[in-house]
Design goal:
This protein is mainly beta. The protein has no helices and eleven strands.
C-alpha cells in the first residue's frame, strides 16, 4: 500500500514559479513510475511529467518549463514549475503506477493569474 501526500500549491502570477512536493508513505520500487498529473475544470486528467528509473518524460505543453525529480530513497517527488501560464491552472495530483495498481494523492490546487 502506498499513500501520497502533496503540498506546495497556491496562487501565483503568470510567469512565476512554484514547486510541488509529494511525500510517499510505503515502499516505492525503482521500477515504479512516479509522476504528476493535473486536471483543470471541465477537462480530463492529463499526465504532466513522469519519472521511471531516472528517465523523465513530459507533456509537450510543459517541456522546458517543468522539471520532475525524486530523492534517492524514492520517498519524495517534486515538480518544479517555471514560467507558469494561466492555462497551467489545475489541481495537480501525485501518482505512483505499479501495474496493475495505481496510487493517487489528494491533489493540490495551482492557480495562475494573468
Amino acid at each position: 500500500q502506498v499513500t501520497l501526500v502533496e503540498s506546495g500549491g497556491g496562487l501565483v502570477q503568470s510567469g512565476g514559479s512554484l514547486r510541488l512536493s509529494c511525500t510517499a508513505f510505503g515502499i516505492i520500487f525503482s521500477t515504479d513510475a512516479m509522476g504528476w498529473y493535473r486536471q483543470a475544470p471541465g477537462k480530463e486528467r492529463e499526465l504532466v511529467a513522469r519519472i521511471i528509473g531516472g528517465s523523465m518524460a513530459y507533456a509537450d505543453s510543459v517541456k522546458g518549463r517543468f522539471t520532475i525529480s525524486t530523492d534517492n530513497a524514492l520517498k519524495m517527488v517534486w515538480l518544479e514549475m517555471n514560467s507558469l501560464k494561466p492555462e497551467d491552472t489545475a489541481v495537480y495530483y501525485c501518482n505512483v503506477f505499479r501495474a496493475p495498481k495505481e496510487y493517487w494523492g489528494q491533489g493540490t490546487q495551482v492557480t495562475v493569474s494573468s
